[in-house]
Design a protein that fits this description.
One of its GO terms (molecular function) is delta(3)-delta(2)-enoyl-CoA isomerase activity. Pathway: Lipid metabolism; fatty acid beta-oxidation. It catalyses: a (3E)-enoyl-CoA = a 4-saturated (2E)-enoyl-CoA; a (3Z)-enoyl-CoA = a 4-saturated (2E)-enoyl-CoA. The protein is an alpha/beta fold and 240 residues long. The chain is built from eleven helices and nine strands. It has a single domain, classed as 2-enoyl-CoA Hydratase, Chain A, domain 1, CATH 3.90.226.10. It is globular and about 55 Å long.
Length: 240
Amino acid sequence: MCTLQKRGNLFFLTLTGDDEHRLSPAVIDSLLSAFSEAKSQAVSGSVLITTAHGKFFSNGFDLAWAQDAGSFSGARERLHHMVDSFRPVAAALLSLPMPTIAAVSGHAAAAGFLLALSHDYFLMRRDRGVLYMSEVDLGLTFPDYFTAMMRSKIGSPSARRDVLHRGMKIKGDEAVRMGIVDSAHDSEEGVVEAAVRLGEHLAQRKWNGEVYAEIRKSLYPEVCGVLGLSAKSVVAFSKL
């Protein structure tokens, strides 16, 4: 599950516990509730930082829950349910009226990788943890919004190939070189501290949240189109 705490202008969304933070229906619902709460409390200068306890940021969908259905058709139905339920999580992050930062201090795989990538800024550890899209190794195809997000957020075709088609396990410094993450840090504390520094810097700008969200949506038209998000024109003069 997850918690949401507000400290000044910074919201801290934390995946709690020391497990793999698998994205079960209950965890997905908890994330959506946290995003809704942050949105309802947002003011100019708000920033969201997402992190997690333990060695995992998130190891993706709860495949054990899917397999517990007892049949292939039941497992497939449960997996499709998680895919459909997670779509609003990506949409919420792309439409949230504030800057968002993923502070990834452990492994991020499959949908957990996508969760981090859906933020505006992506920071991770260099000494521990990998990024890994496991679908090609598991024999699963990608949902349309997964590949649209990858095309929108990872500029290099060769990097996208290695992530999606090769199932490459990527550590922090390599992720920076590939243009996937913004920076890599030496410890869990270092990642969070860097995220807080960045969040405080962004908060000082006091941007209008609605304008910020609409600019974000216009920046990623492909994935927003797949997710059903449409950009609109907003004028909110804060400085003349």
